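Supplementary notes for students who missed Thursday's class. We covered one full example, reproduced here. Read the sequence, then the structure, then the short commentary at the end.
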Amino acid sequence: MVLSSMSKAAPFLIDTRELIRRPGEMRESTIEIVTPYAIGIDVIGIPTGSQLLMDLRLESVIEGVLATATVEATAVGECARCLDPVSEDLDLYIQELYLYDDDERASGGKKAKKAAKHREEDEEMEADEALYRLDGEMLDLEPPFLDAVVLALPFAPLCDPECPGLCVECGLPWRELPADHAHEMVDPRWADLKNRLDLGGSAEMGDTSSSG
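Structure (token representation):
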């Protein structure tokens, strides 16, 4: 079953109310997401308005909700050598544990000590890695999705591994230029003299033509 995301403005926000505090429960669904903005790096990324299908599995565990998702997407950009358009198919995998909020744990006098212990354990875990938390009954997949996209994108996308790039002098693609393509290299210190000689030669040719 394909479901639309809950909000166009926040398409990665997932409702987990059916799983809260029910260890062992699981829900699977396919969610249709329209990206509200471009996602990626300067040279390549997923464009604004891209339609994505996310296969999502949510599992309720004692600590919170475990989210596992796979997403297929297409990134577009420019070749780092010749600036031609390029596209890259991305197979993204996300798996994150979303912990219950501390305030919920602390509700009820009998649970206060247990909640304090949990907080200490959480602080130790957070020292080693960044953890995600549920916001009430909502789970936000946007941060891990953004991380997954950036990690999957090539740092320097290429239209072809053998792309020769552009001529640094004229800016034309090498693949479109003849094998003997070259530019006369003039030392900047002699450039003014060369221009004067070129102008002088042109004037002499004009005088010769007139006298003839």
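Commentary. DSSP finds four helices and ten strands in the chain. The helical segments are 102-105, 112-128, 142-152, 191-211. If anything here is unclear, bring it to office hours.
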